[in-house]
Structures are given as structure tokens and as C-alpha cells.
Specification:
The complex is a heterodimer of chains A (298) and B (181).
Chain A lengths: L14 H28 L1 H40 L1 H36 L8 E10 L7 E5 L11 E3 L4 E8 L3 E6 L6 E6 L5 E5 L7 E3 L12 E4 L11 E7 L5 E5 L8 E6 L23
Antiparallel strand pairs in A: 1-2, 1-12, 2-5, 3-4, 3-12, 4-5, 6-7, 6-9, 7-8, 9-10, 10-11
Helix pairs in contact in A: 1-2
Chain B lengths: L12 H25 L8 H19 L6 H15 L5 H15 L1 H5 L3 H27 L6 H26 L8
Helix pairs in contact in B: 1-2, 1-3, 2-3, 2-4, 2-7, 3-4, 4-6, 6-7
The chains are: A alpha+beta (298), B mainly alpha (181).
């Protein structure tokens, strides 16, 4: 293999021609790279298909790999936990006492809520269906925040469905292959989520910055978000159901209201993908985009 | 290729296969390392690490064994990084081709230098590449991205290169050497 990529045994070219060809390869390939950038911009679907084809091939391998890797990580964690066993125990006992008190409050409120709803003839929200999927890789790269899920060959996942971990909102499905799905996290720069501040019922937008904490914006001047206030999703724009837990307001050092996500986005292992039947904002070219209006429920 | 007079082993099929495998070693191990760096290792800064693995390998092999790291191979490795990293397609390809071009240009000068100078040259290239990737990604996504991840990527590259170069130098003299077939 010579630098020109042409075997001298196959085609006998004169040395100057071969040298000229070898010199031309790099400029031609650089031009091809520019062409690829333009093509990727002009036909985003092509790039998405190529990526998801590779992700589909790798997802089962990474899925199999994640078991032993998870075991190693769990082993390291358990060694670390042995040293903090005493303090952890005391903290958990204290937290358990507190949660027990909250549980009795929650049960009383639940019963009251049920009575009120029955006397108001409240139509309950349909119970959403969901599947559970394993996170097999980081799919963000340097300038994005996303994860890759392994969803199995006969999945029912669609673009725009909502991913939650055991604590709160993680993101939405944006790209879909036959065995894998990419979930854009709420911390990504392109993430925009309509939210409600739970205390004041004021509306705001949660805007990702690629950092650990997305920023709150467009809140009403009269009701600034309070430190420690809970933030939940809003049903506006028909992209999310109302009331999914998102995070807690925290003011940054430069006095910008940010949200500390409840979901552990830096170490997602398993997420649930919920189908709420919402087709309000679906990424372009999604299979649901064409049937958006007939399927609208709200 | 080897026109020097002397006694050489016969070009049997096994020996030719061995030589082909040794020639293909740099590009293949680079691709495998990339796939490994994309695996769910749970390391912080893994995306940056992945970019740096591609950069270090392409730089090292372009400098010390360009016959086994041709522009076409660099192009394919760049394509793999773009697809794995969910970056706008072409950004990784272009930056790796620039690294290759730079390494080829300064090859005669750098090959004769000690490790520290080569490493300093790599740090300069890694910084330049991170800036280029940041600028191209910003341009292609139509928004000014925060530059911090780019700086982080350059720093990881500077730290990773000595460790990786030690391993690759060893492979360069043993596994990737077609003359030892």
C-alpha cells in the first residue's frame, strides 16, 4: 500500500504521475469533508439514518458490555460504602423518620383528593403505557447532552416520547433506530421545556445550557422563582403531560435561577419511556408528524 | 518496495497475510480504541476522551508510519468519530485530515526530535483542532457554543498523548512493523 492507494503491481504508472496522485488525495478528501458538512446540513435525515444504523449495530454489544462494567462499578461503590456505613445509617434513620411523617400527610391528602375528585366528577387522566430501557452509551459527544438506549428489535418507542428515571424527567426521544433510541436530555442546549413553578403556579421555560443545571427563563416579573421551589412540567404546547417532577430551583452565584434536576442525569442506567399520546411538538420527519392533528387529544 | 540487495524470506501467502495485518494494524487499532472509548465505561469526560483518542492515534501514526495511516484511512476514522460522537458530519473528518496534513508537512523535522518537542507540537495541534471543531460545530448548529468543553478536550489530549504514545511506540517497533513478518 503506497500513499496514493494505487498498487504498483496492478497499474504501472510513471513515478511523477503516482506522486501527483498521492499529493492530490489529501486536498480531494478535505473537499469531500466540506461536502459532507454541506450534505449533513442539507439532508439532516441522511446523517441521522447513518448514525442510528451504527448505533443499532453497537447497541446490543454495548448492552452486553454494560453488565460486567456495571458489576465492576457496583463493586467499587460497595467498597466505598463500607467506610461510610455508620454515618449513612444515621442519615437514613433520620430521613426515614421524616419520610414517615410525610407519608401520613400524603395518605391523608390522597384520601381527601379522592373524595374531592369523586364529588366533582373529575375525569381521570388515562394511565400512560411505558417500557423500560437500558442506557447503553453516552450519545452526546462534546457539544450535546444525550444518551443512547437499547430498546430491542420489536419496540413501540416513537419520537417525542418522554424518558424518566426513578426520580424525575430525564428527556425526550429525538432519534430512533430499529434497536436503539437517542434521548436528548433536559440539560442539552437544544432542550426547551415548558414548566410550572409548583408554589406559585407561575409558568416559565426550562432551557438547557449543556451544563449540569438548566436555566429558568421567561418567568413573570411579579413572581420570581424562589430558592428551593419545586419545578414540574406544564401541559402547554402539548408536548409534556402536566405535573412531571423536573427539579428544584437553585440560584447560581451570578444570581440566575437554575434548576437542579431530580433525575440523576450523569449516571443514568435505566429509564422508563412513557407514551402519553402527546403529539404537540415532534421532531421533523417523525412518523407522528404527518398525523399530528387527527390524533390530538386535548 | 524493498529494492536493497540481500537474502529475504520467500513471499509465501502466510508471510504476505502477516505483512498486510501489520500494515493494517494502526488503522484497525485506532478504530477499535474509538469503539472502546464509546462503550459505557461511566468515565467523566468520556466524549472528550473519545475525540482525543482519535486525534492522538492519527497524529502518532501519520508522523511515524504514514504508509499505514493514509488520507483515506484518516477519512474513514474521522467518519467513525462523527457517527459515534453524534457531531455534525464532516467536522471530525476535516479536523483529522488537517492533523494528518500537518503531521505529514512537519514530518521530516519532527521525527528527528525528542519526545518532548513532539509532545509540544501535539499540544499545539490538539488546541488548534479543538478550536476548529468548536468553530465548525458552532457554525453548523447556528449558535455560539460555550468554549469550555473545547479547552477541556485540548487539556485531556495533552495529558493522554504521553501515555498513549508509550504504548503506540512499542507497537510501532513490534506489531506494526512489516519487516518483522
Amino acid at each position: 500500500m503506497n500513499p496514493g492507494g494505487v498498487s504498483p503491481h496492478v497499474i504501472r504508472l510513471s513515478i511523477p504521475v503516482r506522486q501527483a496522485l498521492a499529493k492530490l488525495t489529501l486536498p480531494v478528501l478535505i473537499a469531500a469533508a466540506f461536502g459532507m458538512m454541506l450534505l449533513g446540513k442539507a439532508d439532516a435525515l441522511l446523517a441521522e439514518r447513518a448514525r442510528m444504523a451504527l448505533a443499532d449495530a453497537l447497541a446490543p454489544i454495548y448492552g452486553a458490555l454494560s453488565e460486567p462494567l456495571g458489576a465492576v462499578r457496583a463493586g467499587v461503590d460497595s467498597v466505598r460504602q463500607v467506610f461510610t456505613l455508620y454515618e449513612e445509617n444515621a442519615r437514613l434513620r433520620e430521613q426515614n423518620d421524616r419520610l414517615m411523617r410525610w407519608q401520613s400527610v400524603a395518605l391523608a391528602l390522597d384520601a381527601e383528593n379522592a373524595t374531592l375528585k369523586s364529588s366533582l366528577h373529575w375525569i381521570p387522566d388515562p394511565a400512560p403505557s411505558y417500557i423500560t430501557a437500558r442506557v447503553v452509551a453516552d450519545a452526546g459527544g462534546v457539544y450535546a447532552r444525550a444518551v443512547l438506549l437499547s430498546v430491542g428489535p420489536n419496540h413501540t418507542v416513537a419520537k417525542g416520547q418522554i424518558a424518566l428515571d426513578d426520580r424525575g424527567l430525564a428527556g425526550r426521544v429525538t432519534e430512533l433506530g430499529s434497536r436503539s433510541a437517542r434521548v436528548l436530555l433536559i440539560t442539552d442546549m437544544n432542550s426547551r421545556i415548558p414548566v410550572i413553578l409548583e408554589g406559585t403556579r407561575a409558568r416559565a421555560m426550562l432551557i438547557g445550557t449543556n451544563g449540569a443545571r438548566p436555566r429558568l427563563m421567561y418567568w413573570g416579573e411579579a413572581q420570581p422563582p424562589a430558592e428551593g421551589e419545586r419545578v414540574v412540567t406544564s401541559a402547554e404546547a402539548n408536548a409534556f403531560p402536566a405535573g412531571l417532577p423536573v427539579g428544584v430551583v437553585h440560584y447560581s452565584a451570578s444570581h440566575v435561577p437554575e434548576v437542579e434536576p431530580l433525575a440523576r442525569l450523569d449516571r443514568l442506567e435505566v429509564v422508563r419511556i412513557f407514551d402519553y399520546g402527546l403529539r404537540g411538538v415532534v421532531p421533523p420527519e417523525g412518523p407522528a408528524a404527518r398525523t399530528a392533528f387527527p390524533e390530538r387529544r386535548r | 518496495m524493498n529494492k536493497l540487495p540481500g537474502i529475504r524470506p520467500r513471499q509465501s501467502l502466510g508471510r504476505r497475510l502477516d505483512m498486510a495485518a501489520r500494515r493494517g494494524f494502526p488503522a484497525t487499532t485506532t478504530a477499535l480504541l474509538l469503539l472502546f472509548a464509546a462503550a459505557p465505561l461511566g468515565l467523566p469526560g468520556q466524549a472528550e476522551l473519545q475525540a482525543c483518542v482519535a486525534l492522538s492515534c492519527v497524529f502518532f501514526w501519520s508522523l511515524f508510519r504514514p504508509v499505514s495511516m493514509t488520507p483515506v484511512m484518516v477519512f474513514l476514522i474521522g467518519l467513525l468519530t462523527d457517527l459515534l460522537g453524534f457531531a455534525p458530519p464532516g467536522v471530525g473528518v476535516l479536523s483529522l485530515l488537517f492533523v494528518h496534513g500537518f503531521a505529514m508537512r512537519w514530518r521530516r523535522l519532527l521525527v528527528r526530535q525528542g519526545f518532548v518537542l513532539v509532545w509540544l507540537a501535539f499540544v499545539a495541534i490538539a488546541t488548534g483542532t479543538a478550536a476548529l471543531q468548536w468553530a465548525l460545530t458552532s457554525l453548523l448548529t447556528f449558535r455560539l457554543l460555550p468554549p469550555a468543553p473545547g479547552l477541556f478536550q485540548a487539556a485531556i489530549g495533552a495529558g493522554l498523548y504521553p501515555a498513549l504514545a508509550t504504548l503506540l511506540t512499542r507497537a510501532h517497533h513490534t506489531l506494526a512493523e512489516p519487516e518483522r513478518a
